[in-house]
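Posted in: Protein Modeling Q&A

I'm a second-year student putting together a small comparison for a lab meeting, and my supervisor asked me to include a predicted structure for Phospholipid carrier-dependent glycosyltransferase. I've never done this before, so apologies if this is the wrong subforum. The sequence is pasted below exactly as I got it from our records. If anyone can share the structure token output, I'd also love a short note on what stands out.
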Amino acid sequence: MTVIQRWTSEHRALLLLLGVSALMLLLGLGSRELWGPETRWANIALQMLQSGDYLDPYLKGSAYYDKPLPSYWLITATAGVLGDLNHWSLRLPSVIAAWLSVWLVYLIGKQMFSQTTGLIAGWMLISTFYFVFWGRVATADILTVCGLLAAVWWYWRGPDDTRFSRYCVFFLLLAVSSLLKGLIGFVLPGLILLPHVLSEQRWKRHVNVRLCAALAIALAVYLIPFALSHLYGAASYGQSGLGLVLRENVVRFFQPFDNLGPIYTYLLYLPVYTLPWAPVWIIALWVALRNWRHIEPNARWLVWGLTLLFVFFTASGSRRSYYVLPLVPFAQLLGAWWVARRLQQRKKTLGRGWKVAFGLSCGLLLLVLGVFYPWSNGGGGVMQFGQDVKARASAQAPWDDWRMVMIEVDNKLPLYVQNDNQPFYFVSEDQDCPRQGDSAALMAWLDKTSGHHFDPERTLIFAQHRSGDPLPLGYLSVDHQVVSSQVDNGDRLLRRRETESVAYIPDVGGSL
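Accepted answer (user: helix_wrangler)
Welcome! Here is the predicted structure, written out as tokens:
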């Protein structure tokens, strides 16, 4: 067999998997409105880009160090590469992490069992609805999954290798993962690898000075962003990054203050988050337990690792459905092990039925996430609203000349409307914004409370309100043009509309 023939036989299937994965993660990515937590990441990254302050994260103008800085830096970096902060640059870090996760699952499966196992695990993962869904969402959750898989993959390249360079790379992967969401970047890889390290007294080989030195280097790298914030951030910022790490990762685990869920949360959501392949890994778990003494040691490790991760998340009093995401790749890997094992026992290759099942699952996900979701956000909504506001305002003055004020009337997160020159100014309910009066009184109040001067002819006022309620700050309509958001295709189809957005654009031809 020639080199080219060997390369083709070994990698053609992988290239197909990675190509389909890229298509599923990218199709229609920029055509969906911001959803849920994406608004926070968008707002914080936007304020970093507009203010030039990358060390002090702000949400709605207030200090917000809820997550470490690098998850925001990834977004600002992609915005710099693409030339703008938009839906693509916002979500691209998650997309890349999800794509790499599919590749890493393939590599782990190949290292532990066989290439067939790796390919099946990769196809199961990329055809899992909630994995693809969160892989297209701008948060730190899929970034954490990718970091966990990268650490496990690196360990399995040489579990008995005690070189300093091996330790350095491993612990640096843990440090970087922990800088994306929290200390689970250190905890999760340690838990899932613990059974393998303890087996055959393997841990004794790794108790050495080289490991301690590599760990010290990784801890120093982990502390760099927090040190930069402390030394060079704004003196008046008022929040400690390390203090919030302690609060969000340690205090929340033992004394949860939000996201309280019942103890059986993950018994429900692990099967849901692994659909449509939940029955496969559940059967695989049953088979593994039934034949425990006769299955491969790596399969036993996988079951132990999954069990420890499940117990860890269940032990925490703070529980949410998507916290189960780090378990999903390993559950699918367990299912892939069982399928490949059956094929090997029957001396068969992956049959047409499995290929059709993977194809149908991927096709359905493409239709739902890549076609239907973008269509449902069209015909109106926030994205069209932003374009309408920009067009109307730009007809009076260059877009970069406008200042933007967000009035938080119903405690909603601010709209994502881009302006490349000036940052938003946020007004929350507790600031006693004038609900009655006229535009002159509102502008005077803004000047007084902010300490800055707002040009009445170059200030856009944004607000949100519940559908059917009177317009917030309706008195501005006397001397402002009013632009309201329209119902999008999805809400039109479901015949619902919960909130509406409104923008007031100064009417320079009027009384102003």
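A couple of things worth pointing out for your meeting: The mean pLDDT is 86. The beta strands are 58-59, 62-63, 403-407, 424-427, 459-466, 480-484, 499-506.
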